Amino acid sequence: MATESALEHVSRLRRLHRVQLACYNSYEDLYRAYLEAGCEELGLSAGLVSRIRDGEHEVQASLYRHDRPAPVPCLSVTNALYSRVVEFNQTVAVHNVRRDPALREHLTYQTLGVEAYLAAPIPVRGEVFGTLDFSALQPRTEPFADDEIEFVELMAGAIGQSLERDLLDRERKAAIEHMEEQVTLFEGAFTHAAIGMALVGTDGRWLRVNEAVCQIFGYSENELLNIDFQTITHPEDLDADLDQVQQLLEGRQDTYQMKKRYIHRNGSEVWGLLTVSVVRDHAGEPQYFISQINDISAQVTAENALRIRQRQLEAANKRLDELARTDSLTGLANRREFMSRLEEEVQRGQRNGHALCVAVMDLDHFKRYNDNHGHIEGDLALKTVADTLRETCRDMDLVARHGGEEFALLLPETSAEDGLQAAERIRQNVAVIDSLKRRISVSLGVKAFEPVAHRQITPTAVQMSALLEDADQALYEAKSVGRNQVRLARD
């Protein structure tokens, strides 16, 4: 018996080998060959090749012998015998279903009356594609032998391999078609692109260029193919470009973009927006570069013109701002700037507890000077006095022309005593000016502002005017006692 069983096993394997080697015109023919071999070798009456998709059992091929009805109804994976095959991804062999209470509940038995059942999963790329099922309406007297189970598993595996090979062939064909489409698209895009496109070797030599590149640089295709990109790159941009290329070659980046200058064939400068990516082989070695070059010369020219215009506008605005804050004759601050700075310094003095002084100065008998020597000399006198004030005062002080022959001074962090001394220095320095038609003198009134301890007072326009009025009153006193005097306003 053992010898007879071994001979049967060898016979089955030879049958399987012949089925595997045969050529088939369709999946239906292939499936039928396996089903016929299985039914005959196992002595079973029906065979199915099914596919499990979206939880449903789809019959791909079936074979029914004389003792079996057909067709088999479509059953869900969860309520059929082959649910165990799919769920556990393993072979199920039952020689007498009616003896198993659990199996008798399956619709396969209740609907079709299947008594003997042998099925194996069909593997495709590590997943259960479907099942190879063999069955009979009569129970077997003995359980399925190991070599019978192995035979079905080998057939299921062989079907899976055929399916995988077919899938691979289909994918390969699709990949070739896709590649051919991409090559066609690339060739069309490369040749007819509105921007410059080029393939560049790792040594910098042009390998291919389109017509747009030739138009940008003024060279013919043959002329460009005989040189490298370094030859027409502006010397000042070459190092930056080569550094980016080196990063591509070393694998530190896959692409880069930069604005750079080229030298046109006629010697003119061409600005280009360059985008470069590297193409590598399967081993990761760089093969060549794909370069896209967009001529942005007009854009750069417009941007440069805009920047120049912007700088001119900023300079004009700065000049207008200065004019708005400056007296045009003397170059000192005007009354508006003086009042603004006065408010800031009073607030700062309040925060920091520092005193400050305001001084108002008037040129003595200036109308008479103007009448005797003319307005030109009068203007010269005002400018000369302004220069003396600048030289005498500190950098932190503010000197302003308050109107006509009157000047105002803001002396931050200055006590009343120090303010009187500063005013006296000014008076003395003006008195010794010897470059005018005659000597002139000035009178000054000083007002000290002492911050109130522990009080944060926001100064108002009325309070600012009051400071100036007090200083102006002290100036009036200086003029009333003979001019060429300094007086401190009384609280």
Summarize the structure.
This protein has 491 residues and is of the alpha+beta class.
Architecture overview:
It is a single chain. With 491 residues, the chain is an alpha+beta fold. It is built from 15 helices and 15 strands. The strands form 3 sheets. A 5-stranded antiparallel β-sheet has the order 2-1-5-4-3, with helices on both faces. The chain has a 5-stranded antiparallel β-sheet with strand order 7-6-10-9-8, sandwiched between helices. A hairpin with a 2-residue loop joins β4 and β5. It is elongated, with a radius of gyration of 52 Å.
How is the largest sheet built, in terms of strand order? Answer: 2-1-5-4-3
Q: Let me know the number of strands.
A: 15
- Tally the helices: 15
| Class from secondary-structure proportions | alpha+beta
Strand residues, percent: 15-25%
Q: What is the residue-averaged pLDDT?
A: 86
User: Ranges with pLDDT <50 over ≥5 residues?
Assistant: 69-79
Estimate percent helicity: 40-55%
The sequence of SSEs as H and E is: HHEEHEHEEHEEHHHHEEEHHEHHEEHEHE
The end-to-end span amounts to 137 Å
Largest sheet: 5 strands, antiparallel
| C-alpha Rg (nearest Å) | 52 Å
Shape: elongated
Strands, helices and their partners?
Blueprint: H1 2-21, H2 27-42, E1 46-53, E2 56-64, H3 82-88, E3 92-94, H4 107-112, E4 116-124, E5 127-136, H5 146-192, E6 196-201, E7 206-209, H6 211-217, H7 221-225, H8 229-232, H9 235-249, E8 255-263, E9 269-280, E10 286-295, H10 297-325, H11 335-352, E11 356-363, H12 366-373, H13 375-392, E12 398-403, E13 406-412, H14 416-431, E14 442-449, H15 461-480, E15 486-488
Parallel strand pairs: 14-15
Antiparallel strand pairs: 1-2, 1-5, 3-4, 4-5, 6-7, 6-10, 8-9, 9-10, 11-13, 11-14, 12-13
Helix pairs in contact: 1-2, 1-5, 2-5, 12-13, 13-14
